[in-house]
Amino acid sequence: MSPFTFASIEAIPRVLQLVVGLLGVIFSVKGRSRGVSGLMVGAFVVMLVTTAAGIAWQFVSLNVPSWSASEQLTADEIRLIFMGVGVPLDAAALLSWLLVAIAVVKSGRSTRQPGIAPNPGPVNYPMAAQPGFQNPQPGYTQPGHPLPNPPTQQAPNQAPH
């Protein structure tokens, strides 16, 4: 098999990682409306860029034999090139995982401020009165417009005035 075929086969897991990263970006961008952290979007973007750069570097490095055969680069210089490319790629991958970890920790925290009650969700009217207050009248009123008092019932043995 040719070196290009080997590199293509070796790239399959990274291509799958690209697909997962792309799905992660899509779902995290959609999840922003539900409160998913922007760090998660950033983490997946860094993962995508890092993975794509790693795939590209894998195919560029196929030319290493021609670099050394042309005697323009020594083994130490080639090693330095690999280190110069590998360290930033590894640092970017580490950064993406760090962003994921921070986003996960951040999503587990309560975002409410002290003294502010959480949103209880849908409210069923009428609610029961707090101790010491009268129960609300049936029906719905706009704030500032009280309901009229219900008709009072007269005792059965009294005649109306």
Structural commentary:
Helices cover 57% and strands 0% of the residues. Helix 1 packs antiparallel against helix 2 (38-60). It has four helices and no strands. The longest helix is centred in the middle third of the chain and has 34 residues, at 75-108. It is rod-shaped, with a radius of gyration of 33 Å. It has helices at 3-31, 38-60, 64-69, 75-108. The protein is mostly helical and 161 residues long.
Number of helical segments with 4 or more residues? 4
Structure classification: mainly alpha
Inertia-based shape:
rod-shaped
| Strand and helix order | HHHH
Write the layout of secondary structure elements.
Layout: H1 3-31, H2 38-60, H3 64-69, H4 75-108
Helix pairs in contact: 1-2, 2-4
Features of the shown structure:
161 residues; mainly alpha; 57% helix; rod-shaped
Q: What's the gist of this structure?
A:
By secondary structure, the protein is mainly α. Helix content is 57%, strand content 0%. α2 (38-60) packs antiparallel against α4.
